[in-house]
């Protein structure tokens, strides 16, 4: 079972992601702030992290920069429709970008890209 850490400040989206990940047979952990995310990475050692770009304290790009040394695959999540965001996410080290609202199959596709096959 893959362990996924969700970093999302909106509690409804955080809960939805945890439910969706459970439906995809993942063990999901969720936090709402970058500072709690840094602690959770050490505590839970996830296989992948899903990071909201629009976080408080620092944006998801800055958090990804802090997490890059862990070599844990990262998937970006955003409600922003800016067309250059996908390229910026790739340059920041994200394996993919989920645009909200997204479907379960979109989440599954991005996890497949991020996680090695067993």
TrEMBL record:
Residues 3-115 form the Response regulatory domain. CDD domains: REC_hyHK_CKI1_RcsC-like. The keyword Transmembrane helix does not apply. Signal peptide: none annotated. SMART domains: REC. GO terms for molecular function: kinase activity. The modification 4-aspartylphosphate is found at residue 52. One of its GO terms (biological process) is phosphorelay signal transduction system. It holds the Pfam family Response_reg. Keywords: Kinase, Phosphoprotein, Transferase. InterPro entries: Bact_response_regulator, CheY-like_superfamily, Sig_transdc_resp-reg_receiver. This is Response regulatory domain-containing protein. It comes from Saccharopolyspora shandongensis.
């Amino acid at each position: 079972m893959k362990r996924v850490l969700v970093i999302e400040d909106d509690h409804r989206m955080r809960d939805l992601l945890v439910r969706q990940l459970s439906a995809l047979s993942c063990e999901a952990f969720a936090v709402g702030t970058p500072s709690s995310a840094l602690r959770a990475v050490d505590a839970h050692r996830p296989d992948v992290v899903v990071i909201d770009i629009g976080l408080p304290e620092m944006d998801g790009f800055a958090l990804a920069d802090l997490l890059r040394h862990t070599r844990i695959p990262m998937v970006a999540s955003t409600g922003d429709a800016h067309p250059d965001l996908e390229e910026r996410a790739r340059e920041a080290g994200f394996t993919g970008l989920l645009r909200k609202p997204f479907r379960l199959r979109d989440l599954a596709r991005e996890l497949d890209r991020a996680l090695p096959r067993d």
